[in-house]
Amino acid sequence: MKNNNLIRFVESLVFLPVMTLSFTFSGFHNVPAPQDVLVEKPNIATDSTFALNQALEPKVDLDAELKKAKAEAIDTYFAERDMPLEGTGMKMVEEAEKNDLDWRLLPAIAVRESTGGKNDCKKVENNAFGWGSCKIGFESNEKAIETVAKNLGGNNPNTAHHYDDKETKEILRAYNPPSIVPRYAEQVMSIMDAIGEPEMTVTPLLTYNTST
Asked: Which domain of life is it from (predicted)?
């Protein structure tokens, strides 16, 4: 009899925690199962990444930034040497693009001919390029840049036979032939290399678009 009572007492000890555990969970009907939470988390992360990718958009005009970088390279070269043509970099870049010229050609010629405007033509005004053997003046440096670029690009019918469809070195040899100024083309091209690389690149920045 004692043995039967002892067995029943031990069985009650085993059964009681099981009942208590069942009761504890049954009282919380709104608690999600652990596996449900694990399934939902990746979905939330995926949605957030998608939204972030949509919000990060390039807000940079790459062509404008490239022109700006070239102009700054020209103006920096002038500024570091205290040359009067500082500030004309953007005009030189724009006119070079219009006439299909290397963006460094105009400033390099100006440096070779007049030390960037320090020693421009004496008898005429605003001619830092030695254009027309220093017999032609301009109302401004900007007008001089426009005229020289147009001619070197082969877009002036009166001078196109000298410059049209020529590479930079050929243009320079037509501008000042080796028979008149030996190694003129090489000197100008060396200045071009000092101003910057022929091909410049800019890296677009991603900005957060709060309008979406």
From this structure: Bacteria
57 backbone dihedrals φ, ψ, rounded to 5° = -135, 145
Reference 88, options 104, 71, 100; nearest CA is 71
Half-sphere exposure of 68 (CA within 13 A, CB side): 8
Residue 73 in domain: yes
User: pLDDT confidence of 58, banded at 50, 70, 90?
Assistant: low
Cβ-contact 117, 84 below 8 angstroms: yes
Residue 18 has pLDDT above 50, yes or no: no
Can you tell me the distance from the alpha carbon of 122 to that of 84, in angstroms, rounded to the nearest whole number?
15
User: Rounded mean pLDDT of 201-209?
Assistant: 63
DSSP state of 125: S
Q: Is residue 74 part of a domain?
A: yes
* CATH number of the domain bearing residue 168: 1.10.530.10
Three-class SS state of 74: helix
What pTM was estimated for this model as a whole?
0.70
- 84: tokens are 């009067």
